[in-house]
Amino acid sequence: MSMFKLDPEFLEEKTILDCAAGTSSFTPVMGNQGYNVTALDPIYGLGYGLVEERSIDDFHTLIKAHSGLEHKVDWSFFQNSKNMIEERIESCKEFIDDYKVFKGLRYVEGKLPQLPFTNNQFSLTLCSHLLFLYDDRLDYQFHLESIREMLRVTAGEVRIYPLVNLQGNGEKSHFVNLIKEDLTHEVNVELVEVDYRFRKGGNEMMKIKRE
Ligand SMILES: C[S@@+](CC[C@H](N)C(=O)[O-])C[C@H]1O[C@@H](n2cnc3c(N)ncnc32)[C@H](O)[C@@H]1O
Fold first, then answer.
1. How far apart are CA 65 and CA 193, in angstroms?
2. Which atom of ligand 1 is found nearest the CA of 22?
3. Which helix (H) or strand (E) holds 156?
4. What does the alpha-carbon distance between residue 95 and residue 87 come to, in Å, rounded to a whole number?
């Protein structure tokens, strides 16, 4: 929630898409609170067993990636690694239980830059830890097409987090300014500070709205 500065009042009546949702707990948590939320990811084409394995792998990858990289991480948000690990174990369980029940319902298989949804199907689309973060392997064209596609299926706002890349120097991806320039005549692009931060410099999101 804090990655995208979402509060319950703002979310009321929203039809939410979590794009590239992976094994995160946003969809189970929100879905179980009664929000209308859909998660999209290529991994949802896999059966329950494989997705469960993927979820456990993601957890181990995260722990491995961050051990020894403390200087690139802002621990003040999670307080310490133990707190972060406990939270992640809980999220992992929540996701797996929910996926088992709602595969093919809340969890839709798909892949940017093309989405299996109709124009304006959602009022809010979120995308975390895919665009900008992996700017070394996902090229600029992919970023531009993916954002335009998310805007196509969204009547309200698209929000993207974080804006930094994996290099971890706290600098924004250089695609951020290019996207702002390229979309400036079509939509309103704003960079907004958020409470959540884990990677250094990772306390901003991009908010994109039709004019
Ligand atoms: C680092 S995970 C982030 C998951 C989640 N959004 C989060 O913040 O925890 C990146 C996710 O992007 C998904 N992904 C990879 N390529 C994709 C694409 N072309 N379109 C949509 N999702 C993609 C992966 O399967 C993976 O689940």
1. 25
2. 27
3. strand 154-161
4. 12
pLDDT digits (tens, 9 = 90+) for 13-46: 899 999 999 999 999 999 999 999 999 999 999 9
Tell me, in angstroms, the distance from the centre of ligand 1 to residue 198's CA. 18
CB-based contact 138:168 (threshold 8 Å): no
Q: Indicate if ligand 1 lies below 6 Å from the C-beta of 21.
A: yes
* 3-class state of residue 21 by DSSP: coil
Which CATH number is correct for 15-210, 3.30.565.10, 1.10.10.60, 3.40.50.150, 3.40.50.261? 3.40.50.150
Q: At 41, list the tokens.
A: 């990811």
Name the average pLDDT for the chain.
Answer: 88
